[in-house]
Amino acid sequence: MTTLKSTNYKGLLRRQGKVRDVYDLGDRLVLIASDRISAFDWVIPTPIPGKGELLTQLSLFWFHHLGQEDQILETDPVRMGTPFAEDPESLRGRTMMVRKTNVIPFECVVRGYLAGSGWQEYQEQGTVGFITVPTSLKQASELPKTLFTPATKAESGHDENIPFERMVDAIGSPLAETLRCRSIDLYQRARDHARSRGLILADTKFEFGKIGDEILLIDEALTPDSSRYWDADTWKPGTNPPSFDKQPVRDWLAGSGWDRSSPPPELPPEIVAQTVARYQEAYDRLTR
């Protein structure tokens, strides 16, 4: 795994997100996945070595496996031209040159199991994504059917779960229905693949953009940062299964005494190692 050396390439930086750096080349963007990790709406000062490469390579695996129209143009920094070609060692594996799209401003969330904010809503209201489901379900239960539960895209803080009808009002019924059907299809095919590798894909979120009338899958896809994976052998309804993501970081921060209103502390080496191992295991099992 390489370490990302630079965070700015000759003034091209357009935006720095919690994890990705975005460089604007006009009709194209260059996305560089850093090793930064966020929790509780803060970027943690300690990086997770190799995380950017793992997430990028897993997204590329899924784009290829699912055969989707996506925005990717190039993944080799040497072929991206100056200035990226001048730093291939630190950029290789974590960098994508993509077509610039008109981003559809909704997270396309798909849920197959009862977890996260869906579980919280179910406890409070008996619904998941504002959709009524049976009253007998437990935490981590498989839902009777796959649900599409969109959310607004937040620049900071948490995304807001919304009824599907609000998405329809914003972008129109034909596009909203297309995104719902496409998202459910992608989830179900990814779920079946994950299950064949001993993992449960509990839920995920997709992002889409448009170029003219073409709808493209963009950003990342089905990584542990955008999806909830559980070990199928230890999954049990009525429990909160550990997921293959940054849960060790969340758990350590929750017990560290940090007040969540001031800059977060550095992570101890053992928590970094545990987090790397979780991401690596998910990648290995899904792509082997």
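the 2nd protein, sequnce then structure:
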Amino acid sequence: MLLWFVFGAIFGVWNVFQSPGLDFRLIAAGALLPELIDLPFGAQAYAHTLLAATVVLVATMLATVGRGRRLRRRRALGLAIGWFAALVLSAAWAHKEVFWWPAFGAERPDAPLFGAWPVVVIEELLGAAAAWWTWSRFALSDAARRRALFRNGRLAIAGKGK
């Protein structure tokens, strides 16, 4: 499920925001964190709740309060944006007890962490397509562009600067 979450989030976030100022490393990390955190439960649990994503967003905003921190905030918001993207990509919103926890009771929310294997295969194929789109759209075959992505998390459309 790596490709689906990482490149699905990158694809979605780029096409919604179209901002080269976001840190796409943090978006990828944010998209994976709910899965990794809930993996020990073997189900969508606390990390797949709207509350968890909101706590990450509020913590990011509070940690970057003050003058001169706008660039740091814009980059750090990638983690929260990736987390919200993971909620969409994992379909956590389809399980009201998980998504809205604790509104429907304080017991641990529980929904399948991953779909049936045919769904997982389709999602990974879509993630591979999003990876190919990312590779070609941002000319990541160029070593300098790859280094820039790994160094500062930025993506720039091919032909529009490095």
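The CA atoms of residues 34 and 102 lie 17 Å apart. The chain has a mean pLDDT of 91.
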